Amino acid sequence: MITKFTIGRRHSGDTWNVINLVSDIKWVTDLNFAAGTLTFDLLFDSSFYPQDGDVVEFQWDEQKIFYGYVFKVSFKEDKKFSITAYDKTRYLKNEDSLVWPISTISDRFDTVCKMAEISHKVVNGSDYKLPAEVADNKTYFDMLKSSIDKTQKATNQMYYVLANYDVVELRKAPYNELNIIVGDQSLLTGFSFEKSIDEAANSVRIIKKNQAESQQTSSTSSVSEESSGEDPAKTSFNYTDSIAGNVQDWGKLQKVENAKDKANDAQMKQRADELLKEKNKETYTLSLTCLGDTSLIAGNSVNIQIDDLSKAGFWINNTAIMKATHTFDVDYKCDLEMKVNEPWLENNSSE
């Protein structure tokens, strides 16, 4: 049950207890660099009008669930406000231009949070030194995503950003390996599973463009090439391919990438092999609907025991939550999107 739900002005100190006025509460956490979201309806009360920027605090069964700010308010003929609030990670959508020195993901997380003026904490840091780079006109989320992706590629360890009530944290995934079982005899009320090769590639071609007139190579994309007015008689391409054995099973699914400037044949072949390894795989989607539990949030992992899924040839044991949607009602439930295309990388970490 709701044990706290207040809305308050950010600086005046005025706060309203709206426990008896709220309904249709949904809370979403998502690892895909999206702010935590709380949506709810609020019954009209002439003594109080919600405003953009108001502080929202929500607790369920004495558990601190959400601390954030109103970003959207609508009002309809049913005399209810429909409100969208975001947690503090929303301010990581602020845009900026920065020159990063050689530094770690922990350093960069600390820097952007200070610039966004949000309380934060490095729960799990990394010692891996990222190269210096320029981030021009990018969101702080984009800057962190780039740094996290590079850190994961180098160390085999995934990091993510999530709000822990009113503090934004940098964490290592999985943050908490829950002992909870989501399955036939425990919490589960429904599931769907999908596998796909729609985004896969089993043939990779790295292309270098040669222009006879200038004898230079270019990494310009094909779209800009078509509009550049280049002379077909003076343009040719060199190709470096990497092809997987499962072409006979899936058919040829080809991805093309332009070679970096001055890349030699060996470098082009290395890049083709790397990209093939990355793209030559099925993707899997497992969605679960289960009874509500406040620990089922993005970044934590749970144990899966679904007999029908195993009988259909898919064995999924402990896996991670990528996105969690909690619907707080008389029947409190969760909708979970799980990470099943590859295991968490904790056990293979080189750190």
TrEMBL record:
Record protein name field: YqbQ/XkdQ domain-containing protein
Highest taxon in the source lineage: Bacteria
The UniProt annotation puts the region (Disordered) at 210-238
Biased composition, class Low complexity, residue ranges: 213-226
Q: For this UniProt entry, which residues form the secretion signal?
A: none
Residue ranges of every copy of the YqbQ/XkdQ domain listed in the record: 25-339
The family database entries (Pfam families) matched by this protein are listed as: YQBQ
What organism is the protein native to? Companilactobacillus kimchiensis
